[in-house]
Design a protein that fits this description.
Strand content: 25-35%
Largest sheet: 7 strands, antiparallel
Distance between the termini: 103 Å
CATH class of the largest domain: Alpha Beta
Number of helices: 5
CATH topology of the largest domain: Protein Transport Mog1p, Chain A
Structural class: alpha+beta
Order of helices and strands: EEEEHHEEEEHEHEEEEHE
Length: 297
């Protein structure tokens, strides 16, 4: 009759004949006395019969083998990483599909300034670098014999002289054939009545009375409220106004940038006036591209 194991020691005797199942320090696959096929618990190293599913000593499921360390899963993770790297390298060498490569470039590549802009221009009197949309005309009136502190960019050359007469304030320009822009410093600082070092407050103080009490015959609505931006690493603010004169609707985008210079107002202003039929469209994106290209020195 088999006796229960003494103490908390895993059984090492044959379950059929109680003969020792360990040869020296190594377990055997069969009992040396009765040739019974033996199984060994992977958890407690106890001996079990060939048809046992669970260890009679610790209850471990014998078919699971030896318990694995939690770290073994790191090998699976490392293998997946290596496979992904290999697949990525193979696609890179073979050439990825155009749709995939375009998506990757759009997320990883730096944003281009604009493919509709020509080479940079520079106005020494106004100390500003800027770019011009392809096909537009540009006149720097600050370099004339009788200089005016304004640069006019126009899609239609017929709008040049009328825009120059506004001294950079396009709210009074009507009508326009197409989109027109002015760059410059408002004479006397425009309507700014607050600290110019805060373009957001300065532009708000300028737009608020224009919306509340517009000139006769003009209705002004705010299409995009005043909000802060950064242009050329300088603090700036931008607003979009909807201007209505009778049946004619235009959109005015105004940007002011804090760029102090001796002897002139500290704010640089860019106005862009666009007919409603062209807003928002190609001209709208071109205007935004010009504004992004501004670099004040």
């Amino acid at each position: 009759m088999k006796m229960p194991q003494a103490g908390l020691v895993a059984p090492t005797l044959c379950p059929r004949c109680d003969a020792p199942a360990v040869d020296g320090e190594m377990p055997t696959d069969r009992c040396a006395a009765c040739s019974l096929q033996l199984r060994w618990c992977g958890n407690c190293r106890g001996v079990a019969g060939p048809f046992d599913r669970f260890c009679g000593f610790c209850g471990f499921e014998l078919i699971r083998g030896e318990p694995r360390s939690p770290l073994w899963r790191l090998w699976a993770v490392a293998l997946i990483v290596l496979l992904a790297a290999g697949a990525g390298f193979g696609l890179w060498k073979a050439g990825v599909p155009a749709a995939v490569s375009g998506a990757v470039r759009s997320l990883s590549a730096p944003r281009p300034r604009s493919n509709v802009l020509t080479a940079d221009h520079y106005s020494r009197p106004l100390a500003v670098h800027y770019s011009v949309p392809s096909g537009w005309t540009v006149v720097d009136y600050s370099t004339n014999v009788t200089p005016q502190p304004v640069i006019v960019l126009a899609r239609n050359a017929a709008d040049q002289s009328a825009a120059a007469a506004t001294q950079g304030d396009l709210t009074g320009l009507d009508p326009v054939q197409s989109t027109v822009m002015t760059l410059g410093r408002p004479p006397g600082g425009g309507q700014v009545v607050v600290d110019a070092r805060d373009p957001l407050a300065a532009l708000t103080s300028e737009v608020a009375p224009l919306v509340a009490s517009p000139p006769s015959g003009l209705k002004v609505d705010v299409a995009e409220p005043v909000h802060a931006v950064t242009i050329g690493n300088r603090p700036a603010a931008v607003v979009v106004l909807k201007l209505t004169r009778g049946d004619v609707v235009t959109y005015l985008r105004r940007v002011v940038v804090y760029a102090p210079r001796a002897g002139v107002t500290a704010l640089f202003q860019a106005d862009a006036l666009t007919p409603a039929a062209q807003w928002p469209a190609v001209d709208s994106s071109a205007v935004a591209a010009v504004i992004r290209s501004l670099s004040l020195t």
